[in-house]
Each structure stands twice: as structure tokens, then as C-alpha cells.
Amino acid sequence: MIHSPTTQRLPLSLILIGLITALILSSCTAASADSTDSVPAAPVRVQEAYFYKPPRDGTTAQDLAARADLIILTRTDEPFRDAVRDAGYSGIILQYMLAAEVSGPVDAVRADAPCNAQHRPWRNQAAFRVGEFCALIHPNDDWFLHNARGERLYTNWPGHTGYFYHMNPASPGWRAFLIARLRQALNGDAQEPALGYDGVFLDNVALSLWKLRAQVSNSDGVVREFETDDAYRAAWIGLLRDLSDALRPTWPVWANLIVDSSPSQGWNDYLSHLDGVMVEAFATGWRNNVPPDQWERGLTQAEETLRQGKGYLAVVQARDQALLPFALASYLLIADGRHAFFRYAEKGDYAIYPHYPLLDIDLGAPEGPRYRQNDGAWRRDFARGYVVAYPDTKTARIVLNGETLTE
Questions:
Q1: What gap in Å lies between CA 243 and CA 250, rounded to an integer?
Q2: pLDDT digit string (tens) for 103-144?
Q3: How far is CA 308 from CA 148, 253, 273, in A?
Q4: How many CB atoms lie within 10 A of CB 253?
Q5: Cβ(164)–Cβ(155) under 8 Å?
């Protein structure tokens, strides 16, 4: 390069200083851009959920519209659903559907048994018309799961005049039937118009064989079609993949994931085919006996679900209101202000929907994720307060604007 007479060479030290300064400025600019592009922390309030049938405790459609952020209802609940929408509710309302259970008569435990075509099925499952079970389901024995005696596995639900038979998630025939019924409900067809729900909620999507082996009415420790949990999970993943391909992204698909033998097994493989999940015994378990390490794994699982932009419905089982502070604090430790929902199910009755003033708390935006204190408890700070959960004692401290609400 030819320099003009006025061009001077700078000392090497000044050149290095200039380069370092440029790098610092570039880094600051990039950091500023990242800060602008990132999604700011949303204020965390309690987003309440309601399911599965209209309330029986005097809660009105107007009450539900004012309080709920996520609603799940069942076929035949459309008049109440429409009343909730007319009252101003703008969130999604999902249609409840049993994922692998069918309502049938008690005389169909074996393939060669007679079938009472007059059985009146419940409407929370795929074969909901009178006579459909005998005509469309009963002839296909490979659609069912069986115990060691060759009986079709079933559960005898209280108030049900028949049995709920457990279906095989690996069966192509059962998958096709379930998906066809869901598409019919969501899209409508020549036989009936669409029901008008915003998506589907699948109940009892299992992560292990435990319930079938030990808890259903005719369990004998064996599920003839599956020898291992891994094989059973692979069948469920296949069903969810087929269902996801058929419905999503037009229709969101949520599921209640049950009998999770280990949080690390199967969860993410299921989650990749879903838009949201329910955990039906969040934080305290079914009998208030969740050990601290399992409680913490559950929170980590919830955070990973939310990190992926999936919905997370935390349902707490309780006999009274004693567990409410700890349950709420556990939820607030992981809530993101967008995709996390909460339900405190007192007395195990999903048709009552009491108002708990503590759930009206507004702590503002979180200042960061949860962190462990020196005493082993977990804390999270917010713009207007903080929460601390003590998993050993199932207690909590919730502080708002300097005032301690629970201790």
C-alpha cells in the first residue's frame, strides 16, 4: 500500500488498545441485542385449571370464566362450555377422552363371550354410542390387553353399569379407531358436526405397567402383551406419534401422564408428541408421602417441560386446606407465568371448585430461578416478595410486600 505524505504509522501498543476497545464495544452491543431479543420474565400469578365435568358446588359458568385459565370438559358438556365462553372466557377448552379404556358390558371379558348390545356407555371414551362396543370393539380381541388367565383387563368404576376395558396401545386397529373418533369430534363429518372444542385431553397415558399389573379389577401381575415397561412405553410413544401426526398442530393434544416409575424414563419421549401434560399428584403425591428427593425431581421435570414451551398442569391431591401453602409454594417455584397451571383438588372431588384467597397472590415477575438455601429449603425471589418451600415438613413461607402470608 502507498501512503500519502500525511499518513503516519501508529505504535503497536496503540493498535492493540484500539483492537481491545473494539472487541469490548462489540461484545456490549451483542449483549444488548441478546437482551432485547430475549423474552422478559412474565409476572407469575396462579393460572387455575378446571376439569372434567361441570361443577356441582354452585360454581357458575360466570364464576368459572372469571377464575379459570385452562378448562377440560367431556362430551355432552357443550351447553355449559358455551355458557362459559359467553361469560367472557377466552382460554382453551379441551375435550376429555380416555386414551386406552373403553366402556363395555360386563359379559365381554373374553373374546368368545356374548356381548350385551344394550349396554349404555359413558361418553368419556371413544365408543360412546349404544351398541358400538359389541359391533366395533368386541370382535377385535387384539385391541385389548389381557391378564395371565386370558381375560381382558378391566376396571369396575363406581357408578358404571359395565366395565372399562383396557386397550392395547400397540394395536394398529385400536389406534386407528381412537384417532378416527377424535378427528370426528374435532373436525366433524357427515355423521355429526364438530363438537366445538379447542383440542383434546387424553387421560391415563401410562409410563409403566404398574397399574395394569397391580391395580385394575382383575390384575394378576401379568400383562400378556408386554413383558417390560420399556416395551409398553414404546407402544404408547407410537400411539402418541400417530395421534400427533393426525391432529397437531391444528388441534393441541394434552395428556395426563400416570404411574411414572422414574421421572427420567419415557417422559421426554412422550412430551415430544404433546402440547401439554397433567401431573395429577404434584408436590405431595396421593397420600402426602413424597420424599424430598422425589419432590425435587418433580420440580426439575416441570421446569424442563416449561422450558420446551409445553403446558404443565400441576394437580395437588389433598384432604383439606392444610397442604395449600406448601402446594402453592411448590408451584410458584417453577411457574413461568405462561404455560404453568394449578389445581388444588380438595377431598379428591373434581366437581367442587372452592375459591382459595391465597391463590389470588400476585408476586410479580420472578427475579430468577429457584435456589437452595443453607437449611435445605428451596426459595424463589419475585419483584414483590418471595416463596420458600420446605419439602421435609411440607410447609412454606410466602412473603408479599414484606408481609408474611404463610409460615
A1: 12
A2: 999 999 999 999 999 999 999 999 999 999 999 999 999 999
A3: 40, 15, 12
A4: 21
A5: yes
